[in-house]
Specification:
The chain is an alpha/beta fold. It has six helices and ten strands. Strands 3-4-5-6-7-8-9-10 form an eight-stranded parallel beta barrel, surrounded by six helices. The protein has a two-stranded antiparallel sheet with strand order 1-2. Strand 6, helix 4 and strand 7 form a beta-alpha-beta unit. Helix 2 runs parallel beside helix 3 and helix 5 packs across helix 6.
């Protein structure tokens, strides 16, 4: 269940559990997500460039992404400090040019690119050894947290959410059950 080492623009991510990507729209939301335990944050929308700039200044070591289909937005965000492009169109060349990570539904044939396969909502793990990014249906609900634990147990590398704290706890629980990390608190039932 240990996640593979991921390197995006020199920032290394490795964990004994699935990583948690907070999908946020503003710097205050990013601050709250980091306080709740997000390993990465991703911005979308028209204000993504300024949000990336502000987040890079506030969190110099945090992996920051941009979720976009617009090549000019992807490029501007990489110039502002984004480490990961969650692509909704073919933006592999831009990611390669900046050394950014690339999350997309298919693995592009661009050499040297750090790729994560974005499978959308988790249903089952795709074949192969490429790291996987997934969201879960019912994000933030009890059923969504159960799906997050199932996704983490199945080997999803990064879980995208708007409910960081609960999803992080679900990923930690799945890793503790799998034996890749100690439980937060060991309780003996008698």
């Amino acid at each position: 269940m240990k996640t593979p080492d991921l390197v995006f623009r020199g920032r290394r991510l490795s964990s004994d559990r699935a990583l948690v990507l907070a999908a946020v729209e503003s710097l205050p939301a990013a601050r709250a997500a980091v306080a709740d335990g997000a390993d990465l944050v991703s911005f979308a929308g028209a204000s993504a460039v300024s949000s990336v700039e502000q987040a890079r200044a506030a969190f110099p070591d945090l992996v920051i992404g941009v979720d976009t289909a617009d090549p000019s937005a992807a490029e501007a965000c990489c110039e502002a400090g984004a480490d990961l492009i969650v692509a909704r169109a073919d933006l592999a060349e831009i990611a390669a040019r900046y050394g950014a990570g690339y999350a997309a539904p298919a693995v592009p044939s661009v050499p040297g690119l750090s790729v994560v396969v974005d499978i959308g909502e988790f249903r089952t793990m795709p074949p192969g050894e490429v790291p996987v990014l997934a969201s879960v249906a019912g994000d933030g609900t009890p059923g969504g947290l159960a799906l997050a634990a199932l996704a983490a147990s199945a080997g999803v590398t990064i879980i995208s959410t708007k409910h960081v704290r609960g999803v992080r706890h679900a990923a930690e629980m799945a890793a503790s059950i799998a034996g890749t990390r100690p439980p937060a608190k060991a309780v003996r039932w008698e």
